Amino acid sequence: MTDDEIIKMIQGAIEFTDFKIISFNRNHEFFGNRNLIIENSKQRLEYITDRDDILSNSKLVFNNGYHVAGEDDCPLFLIKAIMEDISKIYYFS
Rounded distance, CA 55 to CA 73, Å? Predict the structure, then answer.
């Protein structure tokens, strides 16, 4: 997936919240790792994808075991991590 496609997916995941994308970067020279920061007035969530591991605020939420060779499935699991974090925030608020 292109960065624009991933950003659109992220925007869709946070559309009905007060979270905004602060930054999204992909390091094309280092395994295509992605860094994402979203925040609202109360919380900042930072995501890193590293060789298909996905971390949220420095905690591993998905190891690369989900990855299917040849598939670009990391963005889908990044979205899943975002939605799980956001649902916890709004559920416990």
Answer: 15
